[in-house]
Amino acid sequence: MSDDRAVARAAHAALCATHGVMDLYEGDCRGCGECCSRFVPVSVFDLRRLEPYVRKNGVRPHEPRGEVDLTCPWLTDGKECAVYAARPEVCRAYRCDLHKRGEIRPFFGASSAKVADMREIAEGWCGNDDEG
Q1: Which of 1, 2, 11 is nearest to 37 (CA)?
Q2: How many Å apart are CA 75 and CA 35, to the nearest integer?
Q3: Residue 40 dihedral angles phi and psi, to the nearest 5°
Q4: Contact 55/92 with Cβ under 8 angstroms?
Q5: Tens of pLDDT along 4-54?
Q6: Residue environment code for 39-74, b if the CB has 16+ CB neighbours within 10 A, otherwise e
Q7: Which of 7, 11, 46, 52 is the most buried (most CB within 10 A)?
Q8: How far apart, in whole angstroms, are the C-alpha atoms of residue 108 and residue 77?
Q9: Gap between the Cα atoms of 91 and 50, Å rounded
Q10: Angstrom distance (rounded) from CA 23 to CA 100
């Protein structure tokens, strides 16, 4: 694992342990991107849907924003999901108001999902993984 990935994982773990979820829901998603984390639970089903979509549509991850970027690599500068049609199931089911109340919705593949570094996945698919 490269140093920047290790730093990102450590920063993500520290934030998860010390910061709560903000309820920004107003009856419809605000499209703020606050929930678009670099580290999300994904299943093999998600990856099988997402990779062909990324390759077919030539979707590229955004350049890292800052020294330690914890945002999803598919989140555009306009706070939109560049892979919305093929986004992971957890992204499809997530709502910050439900999370705040402890009412996380189950999602397809949740029982086999593992937290993954979406930047690592994106760079691997797009040939940008110089770090190995």
Answers
A1: 11
A2: 10
A3: -135, 155
A4: no
A5: 777 767 765 666 566 666 655 566 666 677 778 899 999 999 999 999 999
A6: bbbbbeebeebbeeebeeeebbbbebeeeebbbbbb
A7: 46
A8: 29
A9: 12
A10: 6
Look up tokens 């390759």; give the residue: 55
- Which residues have C-beta within 8 Å of that of residue 79, sequence separation ≥ 6? 31, 32, 33
- Compute the residue count for the chain: 132
Main-chain phi, psi angles of 116, to 5 degrees: -125, 155
Question: pTM of this prediction?
Answer: 0.73
Give me the amino acid identity at 40.
Answer: V
To which residue do tokens 């049609």 refer?
85
How many helices (DSSP H) and strands (DSSP E) are in the chain?
5, 2
Q: What is the rounded CA–CA span in Å between residue 13 and residue 8?
A: 9
